[in-house]
């Protein structure tokens, strides 16, 4: 396993994947599990991870993603989705999960429940979905680092038609909307992007000391 | 170093830090560097990381964060900030950085420059800042996993007055706005949250196979 800095310097947004190289069951399981364990605000987990294995669906997604080959050629393709219409229903569901997991009475969680509900109620539906979407990016970051540490390539992807993705994946009926995606697999040896030097603002510019 | 799943199961949103335990210079350097190396859409890095070391400023931030003790008691406290008013200025700056890093003529990047500029111009200033904020969450996720793997505690934090944080840190004059924060340090042994079982929706619910 690579250490954090080695891994982040090794990774790059892979453009061309080797379609013959697949993640092992254990490798993909680790990455999905890492996303599941990612923290979210309040612990509410207003996100889901769609693991798209149907080649026909991946072909449709590729069309809705400017034809990017990674969508179909990478070993795996996952879409992070955010919960829409956040409100009392999700708070109740979460509270029940906390009570069951920690073996405490639901009543003991009334204040926490009320605080989360109050926060959601203070915002518009659009603001809540946007807030949920941000939580998805935490999980994305964790998945990307986890992949790189295990020498698995991954490409974070915003360049797609989110409405079409949501439609193709049938997410609306699940109360979800597509937010961001990641292709996961192994780089093709002739991916011309491998050779490009990583571009980052220098430490002196990126870090602000106060 | 813990592996990914061990690390994510070990970590929790630490509430009470041991104020006597500090990260080594190497440890904080690794975490700041991990955030700097985090990927962002287009590679534009429309974010900065504020490392708040002045105790007086941390005291003010604590007040603007519902008095949460982690703000002052953790070894370190960082605030992720997003660039506001994204437009041609940032695209030019980024293009110059790419050209210098990869030793290519700026003219060779004209198409890429135009694509990024076109994307930014197609959205409102508010939408661009919100998009920049999402990139900060990728870096946050990476920092959280990197910390946990090194057995460093961290608490992601949205529960603060972002306007006050922006004001206290003097971010507006730098074209930045506070987005999300993280306390970083070592748990107090008597933090009652240590004992709580982690709550996550089960795999069958969190992962959607398509």
Percent strand of chain A:
5-15%
Question: What's the oligomerization state?
Answer: homodimer
Kindly report the greatest chain-chain contact and the residue count on each side: A-B, 68 and 67 residues
* Low-pLDDT stretches of chain A: none
Number of helices of chain A: 9
Could you give a short description of this structure?
By secondary structure, chain A is of the alpha+beta class.
Tell me what the structure shows.
The structure is a homodimer of 210-residue chains. With 210 residues, chain A is an alpha+beta fold. The first copy, chain A, has a single domain, classed as NADH Oxidase. Chain A has helices at residues 4-10, 25-37, 55-63, 70-73, 88-102, 110-121, 125-149, 162-168, 203-206, and strands at residues 47-51, 76-83, 153-157, 176-185, 207-209. Chain A has a 4-stranded antiparallel beta sheet, sandwiched between helices. In chain A, helix 2 packs across helix 7 (125-149) and helix 5 runs antiparallel to helix 6 (110-121). Chain A is globular. The relative contact order of chain A is 0.23. The interface between A and B is large, with 68 and 67 residues. Strand 1 (47-51) of chain A pairs parallel with strand 5 (207-209) of chain B.
